[in-house]
Amino acid sequence: MKSRRHAIIRNLIASGEIWSQAELAKLLSREGVEATQATLSRDLAEIGVLKGPSGYQLPGATPAVVTPEGALARVLKRELLTIDVGGTLVVLKTPIGHGNALAIELDRANISGVLGTIAGDDTIFVAARSELAARRIAKHFRDLAELT
């Protein structure tokens, strides 16, 4: 069973972006394999899987080159729950504990019109140069996150 599980894990990681053990467990479950977080943690270590800018990677795999805009889009799709504009502030809501990770990518992306960010546990304030810039930035984030 372990060797089969390892083979499935290798195939899943090689075939797409996987970011968390919870996501991996869900994909394994679809393949008819149930595994606890502790088992997955041991499996990943035994296989030699690394976590890089494009998620889990197999040993020897060439890391993907990710632009700041690409990294921001990926994190927005994963973490952004809601977005709102109030004056010159764009307010982003994330799951609890995910605000800082998204704020780091916002800062790295160096979005035009953004003066700065303040991140809490699940809320990020993005200060814009003007109300018009705030609306433009919010639309840009919605587009990247593929929110309607």
Q: What do we call the CATH topology of the largest domain?
A: Gyrase A, domain 2
Distance between the termini: 43 Å
SSE order: HHHEEHEEHEEH
What is the percentage of strand-forming residues? 15-25%
- Report the total helices: 6
What proportion of the residues is helical, as a percent range? 40-55%
Low-pLDDT stretches are none
Structural class assignment: alpha+beta
Describe this structure in words.
This protein has two domains: 2-57, Winged helix-like DNA-binding domain superfamily/Winged helix DNA-binding domain (Arc Repressor Mutant, subunit A), CATH 1.10.10.10; 68-145, Gyrase A, domain 2. The strands form two sheets. It has a four-stranded antiparallel β-sheet with strand order 3-4-6-5, with helices on one face. A two-stranded antiparallel sheet has the order 1-2. It has helices spanning 2-15, 21-30, 37-47, 68-79, 99-109, 131-145; strands spanning 50-52, 55-57, 82-86, 89-93, 114-119, 123-128. Helix content is 49%, strand content 19%. Helix 4 runs antiparallel to helix 5 and helix 4 packs across helix 6 (131-145). The protein has six helices and six strands. It is elongated, with a radius of gyration of 18 Å. By secondary structure, the protein is of the alpha+beta class.
